[in-house]
Amino acid sequence: MTPSPTHVVLMPSYNAGPRLLSTVGEALRHWSPIWVVIDGSTDGSAEAICRLAAGDPRIRVTVRRRNGGKGAAIASALPEIQAAGFTHVLSMDSDGQHPADCIAEFMAASASHPGSLVLGRPVFGAEAPFARLQGRKLSVALAWIEILGTGIDDPLFGFRVYPVGALRQAFGATRHARRFDFDHEIAVRMFWAGVPVLNKTAPCRYLTREQGGVSHFHYLRDNLALFWLHVRLLAELFPWRLVGVWRARTRHAVRACTAAPLSP
Hints:
Layout: E1 7-13, H1 19-28, E2 34-39, H2 45-54, E3 59-64, H3 70-83, E4 88-91, H4 103-112, E5 117-124, H5 130-146, E6 160-163, H6 164-172, H7 182-192, E7 197-204, H8 219-258
Parallel strand pairs: 1-2, 1-4, 2-3, 5-7
Antiparallel strand pairs: 4-6, 5-6
Helix pairs in contact: 3-6
């Protein structure tokens, strides 16, 4: 497979264990190059992926000594990614939940609409925890309030393609969005900025511990962080951004009418 000169898979990872190598291997079957950001891992996965990358030029690894969160890991890689000539990044979790076989499809959608944010709309299996599914419904409802209507089908699913320049601008607009609040806040802020949004379905799987699944979600800490996220966004929206967001929504509607249709 010829490495793409414009679109790169960016995979932040924190203590993913053996799943990291498996996920990178699955991704390489569908795309290259792959950039991995080790976000302060202490489980030996950093050493394992560095050994693999030493013999495979399709993989590039950056190691952060301290854990800063998913958003911080992605933000730290963007200057080098842009300097290397890449214009778009597909973010993909290292824990095996995201569908490697959808990478090429999402990259093609991005190439057809290079100014757009391509968001994954997850399709869950029967193994998905009920509490997580209900929490996502609440997050979708809050996102629709924050963007004054529909347009973001799932603000938490991290399998998505960003235009690098627009993503860096969104990071520059906030001191937050560096940890678990990253996926939701960045999607909302890019919508606010007028970045067109395309929603595409993709399967999402929850792996058991026996399958190598890992989760760093802490219900109390991270739900409090999400609560504070929505307080911040709504306080910024009303009244300071209300007119601007409404205008952005109008631009989104115009683009949706004129853009070529994509497969769901």
